[in-house]
Design goal:
Jelly Rolls; mainly beta; 46% strand; 17-stranded mixed β-sheet; globular
């Protein structure tokens, strides 16, 4: 059902209003669906750059397009998903990353239905990014217990490499969730707060280092053999599997009017009800 919404409202303690809405559904796709179709490539770019080894990341990491694709639960199953894979070769990690092409996002509510499967030694990331001091993260480490998740507003360390006490929350997933199962991960970025949710339940909030600059949105699956991800066995792999991505956001070009000044003619839609096809 088509809905003509002027603004999109989140329905939480961190409720905010946004101008733009995007929904990318990777479920029930035909086996012939290609990610180079306009529906995907108009908004997302598949990354293909690499990083050389360094003392803190001893294994070369190369992002490759072939590690981003559509997969199905079974050979003839219509249940499909987007797969971002990190795999270990003798000399490197082959990893996967997609980046939203708009670089001018300023505040957003980002929701991703995802699970993580595979070998220890990789990190699944869902995050906003401008630079290393303007970044807000959801991260799942395959070396962790499957009920642990990491939420961070960067920078996570000071100039001496010491952890910033308010930057990161490493916690048990609420509601008994495990990242090996399908879960709705959500990051709300507003001027006052960063808030993280799992399956609609508030996990944590932060006021430390809320991103202030226009940013993009990135999903990736990566590893580099360093202390954060650990090292993966040669020949092994791990996947970030995504059923859908939903975003409402503002940009530096357009800032929506506040609730007080919204016109009676403006149609304001609750985000979750837009996905279900009603206001």
């Amino acid at each position: 059902m088509s809905i003509n919404c002027h603004y999109y409202q989140t329905d939480s303690d961190t409720s905010a209003r946004f101008k733009h809405h995007r929904f990318y559904d990777f479920r029930s796709l035909d086996a012939r669906y290609q990610l180079h179709s306009n529906a995907f490539t108009d908004d997302w770019s598949i990354q293909t750059w690499g990083t050389a080894p360094a003392p803190s990341r001893p294994v070369r990491m190369q992002r490759i397009a072939q590690n981003v694709n559509i997969r199905h639960e079974k050979a003839k199953d219509s249940n499909s998903y987007l797969s971002l894979r990190a795999s270990r070769t003798k000399d490197s990690y082959n990893t996967a990353e997609i980046e939203f092409k708009q670089q001018n996002i300023l505040h957003a509510s980002i929701r991703v239905r995802a699970r993580v499967r595979g070998a220890a030694g990789a990190c699944a990331g869902i995050f906003t990014y401008r630079d290393d001091s303007c970044e807000s993260d959801i991260e799942m480490l395959t070396s962790d217990p499957t009920n642990r998740i990491h939420y961070t507003n960067q920078p996570g360390t000071d100039s001496n490499g010491e952890e910033m006490p308010d930057a990161s929350t490493n916690m048990t997933l609420p509601g008994g969730a495990r990242w090996t199962d399908w879960n709705d991960h959500r990051l709300d970025w507003t001027p006052e707060t960063s808030a993280w949710y799992v399956n609609g339940a508030l996990a944590t909030t932060k006021t430390y280092s809320i991103p202030k600059k226009a940013s993009s949105v990135i999903l990736n699956m990566w590893g580099d053999g360093g202390s954060w991800t650990g090292d993966m066995d040669v020949g092994a792999s791990a996947d970030l599997q995504v059923q859908w991505i939903e975003m409402v956001f503002n940009t530096t070009d357009i800032v929506p009017r506040s609730n007080k000044f919204t016109s009676q003619r403006d149609v304001v839609c609750l985000v979750d009800k837009v996905r279900r096809g009603r206001r």
